[in-house]
Amino acid sequence: MIPGLAGLDVAEALAASGLAARLTLFVLLVMSIATWATWITAWWRLKRRVTSVRQGRRSFRDAGDTARFAGACETDPDAPVSRLFFSFHDEYEALVRRGGGRLGGSLASQEAARQLLGRRVGDARNRQVEQARGGLTLLAVVGSTAPFVGLFGTVWGVMDALSALGLEGSAELAVIAPGIAEALIATAAGLVAAIPAVWGHAVLLGSLRELRTELDSFASELLDVYDRSVAIESAGEGSAS
């Protein structure tokens, strides 16, 4: 029990704690619940996005042409791959219209067109990555602040122990044990809230990097479509001449 601390009864220690300690533990409990709920939700969402992009890339390679893949994207226009593809396809079609049905021109104009397509696809990619970052901020905040919230409870518990020591005028363990127990529980609660948040944040960052890599690879594949189109057009003009 509390007087000896060796057989500490947490329920008894909580019952003996003051209002500040209970509020501290309540805040840490809310942080812990929010951490696990956010981590599980965000991790599941990120994994689904990564799987969706990988499947989309396979479908893009299997489609054989952009028109067929555009029809497939229309069935799920909000998918990350669909967003990137439509941003590329719309600008690509606009370039063809402005060129009178051709993509050709000087090397400078071709490079400018490629950079424009790259920016459009890059903007779409950045939006997808930003949308997938949900939950990272909360986990970072909990991971960085929970130890200090627990430290506040620790300091308050030590203050209670010293206050009891002053009031009783005795250094017996039974006098200071409730305050020390309160401090230890607050310290442990702070770590229990912070460690999963830091770990979850690292896991989500890894999944986010995985998603970013997949999207970058798909963006490169889209720009390869432009490069091949320009090469085919140039070869046709060369054979015609």
Please tell me about this protein's structure:
The protein is mainly α and about 240 residues long. The protein is built from 7 helices and no strands. It has helices spanning about 10-15, 20-65, 65-75, 80-100, 105-130, 135-170, 175-240. Helix 2 (about 20-65) runs parallel beside helix 7. The radius of gyration is 30 Å and the shape is rod-shaped. The termini are far apart.
Poorly predicted runs are 1-8
Summing up helix and strand content along with how strands pair, one would put the structural category as mainly alpha
The topology string of helices and strands comes to HHHHHHH
Described by strand count, sense and barrel closure, the largest sheet is:
none
Number of DSSP E strands: 0
Gyration radius over CA: 30 Å
Mean pLDDT: 82
Q: Looking at the structure, what is the overall shape?
A: rod-shaped
Question: SSE layout and pairings?
Answer:
Blueprint: H1 10-16, H2 19-63, H3 66-73, H4 80-98, H5 107-131, H6 136-168, H7 173-240
Helix pairs in contact: 1-7, 2-6, 2-7, 4-5, 4-7, 5-7, 6-7
Label this structure with key terms.
241 residues, mainly alpha
Give a short summary of the structure.
This protein is mainly α and 241 residues long. Helices cover 85% and strands 0% of the residues.
